[in-house]
Structures are given as C-alpha cells and as structure tokens.
Amino acid sequence: MKNAALFIVDVQNDFLPGGALAVKNGDAVIEPINTLSQKFEWVLASKDWHPQNTVHFDKWPVHCVRGTAGASFPENLDVSRIKKVFLKGTGNTDDGYSAFEATNDDLESYLKINGIKRLYVAGLATDYCVKATALDAVRKGFEVYTVREAVRAVNLNPGDEEKAWSEMKNEGIKIISINELK
After folding, report:
1. Would you call 47 a catalytic residue per the annotation?
2. What distances in angstroms separate CA 25 from CA 54, 71, 89, 125, one per listed residue?
3. What are 18-49's pLDDT values in tens digits?
4. Measured between alpha carbons, how far is 19 from 40 in angstroms, rounded to an integer?
5. Among 114, 116, 136, 160, whose CB has the most other CB atoms within 10 angstroms?
6. Are 94 and 122 in contact (CB under 8 A)?
7. 27, 47, 64, 129: which is the annotated catalytic residue?
8. pTM given for the model
9. Active-site residue, 112 included
C-alpha cells in the first residue's frame, strides 16, 4: 500500500499469556498481524523497553525490562518485514504508552520523511498503548486505522475496551476489519 504503514504496538512476550503482564488472548493478535504484514511495504513496531527501576512499575507489574526475554518479540511473530523498532518507556520517570514517545528516534519525523500518510495500528493493548499511539497519530495529522482482529485489550476495569474504541472513533480513527484491506 502506497504511503501507508502497518504499526505493530508492543507485541512482546510479557504481554502474552504466561507473561508478567499478560493480556487475555494477547497471542490471538499474532496470526492477523503476520497476515497484515504481507500487505505492507512499510512495517514498523514499538517495544516497551523499561529500565529495572521505573515509576511505571508503581502502577504495573514489572514487565518488558530491556534486554530480557519478556521484552522480546515472540518467536511466532514474523519480524522479517519490520523496518524499524521504536523503543518507549525507556526512562525512570516515563510510562511510554504512545510509540510517539519513543526515545531512540522521532516517530513523527520518521513517518513524514518516508512519505507515510496512513497508519494501520495493531498490537497490544487496545485500551492503553494501541489507543495512545493511534490517538497521537491522528492528532499529528495522519490518517489512522485500527485493525479490530489484530488488537486485544487489558480491560483492567470493566468497559475499558469499549471506552477505548469510543474514544478512538470520536477522534476520527477508523476501526476496520482485516478483510477490508485490499
């Protein structure tokens, strides 16, 4: 797809079943993401890349500590097409929910330099990092789509997922099915 990129948010071992901060059925996003990645020339990703000591762990269990197996991509995620990984939550005082908070490169500039105008967002978790990344993208002027089958929510509180979908739709993000991609 011309001027478009698939952006894979935080599909890491610690967010999958058995991980330190497992998203229920989080592993169900892998197959749709692998299918989606074949449709895009540009495939990008983000990773939580936390230091061992961060205020983020006051709110959440210790997860995705840089360099650990939990911070790695799962073996069954096809990473061969990923052109760049944006690292977020790298400081001792930042949460790093949005990939636009990446510290190893400026995501907005990277997208613009490479002519990306449309972003298709997939990954974990719908109600946190997927939502934050999609909202930042649309607010920065990108056309944004979230692929329903390729995301899962934490649902820390009942209704969090529905609130996330509603907030994204209200901001102009299009929620699509994988079958709607040509």
Report:
1. no
2. 27, 18, 24, 11
3. 999 999 999 999 999 999 999 999 999 999 99
4. 29
5. 116
6. no
7. 129
8. 0.97
9. no
Q: Which residues of the chain are under the pLDDT cut of 70?
A: 182
Give the pLDDT score at 137: 98
Q: List, in sequence order, every residue forming a beta bridge with 85; answer none if it has no partner.
A: 45
- Per-residue DSSP letter, 23: P
Tallying the residues shown for the chain, one arrives at 182
Q: How many CA atoms lie within 13 A of 175 on its CB side?
A: 15
Catalytic residue check, 48:
no
Architecture of domain 4-180: 3-Layer(aba) Sandwich (3.40)
What does the pLDDT read at residue 181? 86
* 143-158 as b/e: b if 16+ CB within 10 A: bbbbbebbbbbbbeee
Candidates 88, 95, 127, 131; catalytic one? 88
Which residues, 6 or more positions from 118, have their beta carbon under 8 angstroms from its beta carbon? Answer: 1, 3, 4, 5, 142, 143, 144, 145
